[in-house]
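Morning, I've got a small favour to ask if you have a moment. I owe you a coffee for this, so here goes:

…
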Amino acid sequence: MSLGEFSLVLFVAAVGAGLLGALVGIGGGILIVPLLTLAFGFNIHVAIGASIVSVIATSSGAAAAYVRDHLTNIRIGMFLELATTTGAASGAVIAGLVNSRVLFLLFGAVLLLSLVPMLRRLGSEEAVVTNHPLAEAFRLHGAYPEADGRLVPYGVKGVPGGFVMMYIAGLVSGLLGIGSGALKVLAMDTTMGLPIKVSSATSNFMIGVTAAASAGIYFWRGDVTPLVAGPVALGVLLGATIGARFLVTFRSETIRLLFMAVLAVVSVEMLLRGAGVA
């Protein structure tokens, strides 16, 4: 396969990853890392470098559309970024010292554990109506549009717990180069009680900032390969832009099921690779 053909295949695969990542708020990175390592055979550190760049592209492509559609809670995003950027910088420093197989196992375990609280909320999308005192003080509550055009108001609970989970999400982002969208959605959906559409949109808004906090360290270490990161970033950007247009038309339950299916498949694949099973 020529270099041009290989780049085209990478681009097309990245479009699919970006589209799916934008829909469920996890960013293309969570799919790019297993795609590049499992399907294309790249070293995980090179895959993480490309993923970091693609995560920034995903956020750029989807965030503007979600803000326009009034799905993103910007106040919550800016508040929680204080925790995720600090965690991301910490994780990026640690990543160069960790064995590749340990990264695979960590990645898979984090994703698999993320399914448990999601299962508990399956079938119930009742918005929180009372606010945590900090949410009231910072005016973090809001309303989002449903597919039928009506505005659904919601409150915010568990602000301290969500803040701690966001630091952990940032730490995992810096370690694995995934933007940690899965943990961000998880923290906002389960700990803070936000509707899944708001969690997804706000996660897309945040993941680019989180990834940028650790991207410089990956560039400095030489983990970003332009011939890989270039077509991947462009593909993810296109896919994320397309995916952002469809989120408002999907039912919340559909998005939650799609999110859980993606997590389950990717987590099992990464655990097997970490255990030495091809």
